[in-house]
Amino acid sequence: MKKITAILLCSTALYVNAQKKNFIQYVNPLIGTQKMGHTFPGATVPFGAVQLSPDTDTIPYEMNGKYNGDVYKYCAGYQYDDATIVGFSHTHFSGTGHSDLGDFLIMPTTGVVQINPGTADHPETGYRSKFSHSTEIAQPNYYKVKLEDHNITAELTTTTRVGFHQYTFPQTDNANIILDLMHGIYNYEDKNTWTYIRIENDTLVTGFRQTNGWARTRTVYFAMSFSKPIKEYGNKDYSKRQVYRGFWGKFDQSKNFPEMASKNLRTWFSFGAMKEGEQLKIKFALSPVSSNNALQNLRTETPGWNFDAVKLKGQQQWNAELSKVDVELEDKEDMVNFYTALYHTFLGPTVYMDVNGEYKGLDQNVHTAKGFTNYTTFSLWDTYRALHPWFNLIQPKRNSDMVHSMLVHQQQSAEHMLPVWSHYANENWCMSGYHAVSVIADAVAKGVKGFDANKALDACVQTARTNYYMKLGDYVKYGYVPEDKLRGISVSTTLEFAFDDWCIAQLAQKLGRKAIYDEFIKRSQNWMNVYDASTGYMRPKLSDGEFRKNFDVLSTHDQGFIEGNAWNFSLFVPHDSQRMIAMMGGNQKFIPHLDSLFTMELSDEFFKETEDITREGIIGNYVHGNEPSHHVAYLYNFTNQPWKTQERIRMILKKQYKSSVDGLGGNDDCGQMSAWYVFSSLGFYPFAPGNNLYQLGSPAVKKAVLQFENGKKLVIEAKNQSAKNVYVKRVLLNGNPVSVTSITHEQLIQGGLLVFEMSAEHN
Fold first, then answer.
1. Which CATH number covers residue 244?
2. What strand order describes the sheet that includes 742-744?
3. Kindly report the CA angle at 696 between 692 and 701, in degrees rounded to 5?
């Protein structure tokens, strides 16, 4: 991989403003695409609605009526170990661990049209093609590869709402473009509910696709423009024959008929002969509202056909975002790790509205975003922990718009709830808790403006009082979620509810709404009701008040915890850690207990049934590859041995993040894994989002300059920084000693100089 990384970095031909550094030279989008296969490697602008990427296979979600476990590798569509590319689709998630999307797959071919994708073993039987990583270049907003079977060079770039393709053909008698409307990620037979194609003229095609999946009522419209006129076109309908099909049978709709409509269509467009080196370009715009809006998006964002100009503009956008953090690190590998992580944090959430401000809401009606940018792709179980706090620090205006988007989601929701995990005008209810309240409380605590905080609190309270959501009514009634009411995840759900309740209490206290504060600060103590003092762990409790008898603290399966075990999840009390430590025996017992988490061995048998937890994401029994443990290394700050936080942080940074295709210890989960890396590398972390405190750790940077939206800069210096000097001897803020293990948001955004004096020995 070192050779491949060198190719990617050395072959980078990027715009460099004389007044700015070229930060994107350090970004390698292929990091993490091998083992988990969940990190997005294609072309996109920051927070872009279009994420245009190669898809390397078409694994079905189910086989013989059962879940196909291999599909998990294709959450982002691309798997580094694959030898063929099926095509290039326009919508993807970045490291979600579950998936949808993969809309509108395009593949260029030569010769006789082949309308099926073929197989990985025999790509010649279809339109897919072999490729080699030696011809692959991946950069922010640019992807290039040679499609070997057709001798076509494919290049991709984007704007926010438009995917721009450039295909360089060999000499051929017939150049073709396949548009596969059956293709999708996590695909299955009935995922498509309807597709429609309309040939507007010999260079313009419009249409839409409706799918039922993770988002069950998703419609995406498109407008596709070719740089050359279509000579002929057609389609193949793979749908089961309907009993009644109207009178369309009087036409031959399979070739050169200007309308195509069915559940399962693959279409083709032929352009005749091409000379050696001749290019065919495609602009493909998306809209959540209409094909007319898609066309407006296309004409507004890509009025011309200059591929390099679109690529350049997008890379300028990336450089502007990445330049908000200017770091110096030990070596180039660390620089690549840092800026690739920073790049990941700016992939999503994604813009969800057209250039005219229109978008489809959860009520399935068209709305107009007035005074804010509407966003979607809220993977909140993951991103409330560090990604949204990162935005509050470095992109508060953007996070304000994201909060605004959550509030309109709540208003349009039939359940009148804030988002849990939402995308494309759909709530998919993935994971647990109601962590939008944490994002909102954290934004208010850190002074983010642009929305009505009192109305936001009302939305939080409404969400937290929705009794039919994940047994919230039982949680209020019993003071915990009984295991016999919510099998398998009752304890983790209780812990997450308690934390979210604390966030609501903090927000209510800040706004002076005492009754709400009193209600939710009391609810936030419910975590104590599932703590079993006889074992020292959180434990499933039944509605009769007794703890469940069969209990394994190491197993991740059916023990009361979502994507985790009791060992890790019992430490999830970020809002009341000092009391938790006291209940677990105080420093004398808790510190050895926490030490053993990082040093013990966890056998594969304890997580073999939990696909989100894999060996490469584990240190001892500490599961960094899964988010519930992301605050754990900072727990030593609440004991009399905070130096162990410093030691553990630097160990995790080195072991879980590498500049290689297998370089992530877990899927990136829409930027959360990367946000942890960025914060921890800088020397502080938002331990309990919802207040204004960051816990101090051990910075991996030598120096960093953070540019804030208020115009001020924070300079971070780590004196005597090295791989051995991981311990912090002293911290100074603007020359004044910091005598505690935390620092406030207000102290940071006022700018100035934050100095860590590093040592090889702990203080």
1. 2.70.98.10
2. 684-685, 693-696, 742-744
3. 120
How sure is the predictor about 10, in pLDDT bands with cuts at 50, 70 and 90? very low
Element (H, E) at 593: helix 586-599
Alpha carbon 655 to chain centroid distance? 21
* pLDDT bucket at 171, cuts 50 / 70 / 90: very high
Contacts of 610 (CB under 8 A, 6+ apart): 556, 557, 563
User: Which pLDDT tens digit goes with each residue over 606-630?
Assistant: 677 776 777 778 899 999 988 899 9
**How many CB atoms are closer than 10 A to CB 626?**
27
CA distance 104 to 220: 9
Q: Is 99 part of any domain?
A: yes
Establish if 437 belongs to a structural domain: no
Which structural domain, as residue segments, surrounds residue 202?
2-320
Find the angle CA(748)-CA(26)-CA(57) to the nearest 5 degrees.
Answer: 115
- Model confidence pLDDT, tens digit, residues 173-216: 999 999 999 999 999 888 999 999 999 999 999 999 999 989 99
**pLDDT for 497 beyond 80:** yes
Distance CA 636, CA 648 (A): 10
Question: Which H or E run includes 236?
Answer: strand 232-237
**Number of Cβ within a 10 Å radius of residue 533:** 10
- In the Cβ-directed half-sphere of 654, how many Cα atoms lie within 13 Å? 15
Q: Please compute the mean of the pLDDT values over residues 87-108 and round it to a whole number.
A: 93
Structure tokens at 621: 């029994």
Strand boundaries in 424-480, DSSP class E = 426-427
Q: What is the mean pLDDT of the chain?
A: 94
Q: Does 226 map to a domain?
A: yes
Q: Give the alpha-carbon dihedral of 321, 325, 329, 333, to 10 degrees.
A: -20
Pairing state between β 265-270 and 350-351:
unpaired
Note the pLDDT of residue 36.
62
Whether 188 maps to a domain, the answer reads yes
Closest-CA residue to 457 (of 689, 690, 688) = 690
> How confident is residue 20, by pLDDT bands cut at 50, 70 and 90?
low
Q: Could you tell me how many residues make up the chain? A: 763
3-class state of residue 677 by DSSP = helix
Residue 118's alpha-carbon distances to 62, 115, 603, 720, in angstroms, are: 19, 9, 39, 57
Indicate if the pLDDT at residue 5 is higher than 70: no
Q: Is 339 helix (H, G, I), strand (E, B) or coil?
A: helix
19 vs 752: CA distance, rounded Å? 22
Q: Distance between CA 507 and CA 441 in Å, rounded?
A: 5
**Are 315 and 142 a contacting pair, CB within 8 Å?**
yes
Residue for token digits 């080196």? 277
CB atoms within 10 A of CB 331: 10
- pLDDT, one tens digit per residue, over 471-493 is 999 999 999 999 999 999 999 99
Cβ neighbours for 53, distance < 8 A, ≥ 6 positions apart: 40, 41, 42, 43, 76, 77, 78, 88, 89, 92, 143, 156
Whole-number Å distance between alpha carbons of 576 and 566: 18
pLDDT for the residue numbered 12? 39
Pairing of the two strands 742-744 and 736-737: unpaired
CB atoms near residue 7 (< 10 Å): 15
Q: What percent of the chain is predicted at pLDDT more than 70?
A: 96
Distance CA 329, CA 721 (A): 9
Cis ω before 349 (30° cut-off from 0) = yes
- How far apart CA 692 and CA 389 sit, in angstroms, is 10
pTM of the model: 0.95
Q: How many CB atoms lie within 10 A of CB 384?
A: 29
Q: How far apart are CA 496 and CA 517, in angstroms?
A: 18
Residues 6+ apart with CB under 8 A from 67: 61
Q: Is 355 exposed, middle or buried (0-12, 13-18, 19+ CB in 10 A)?
A: middle
Q: Name the domain count of the chain.
A: 1
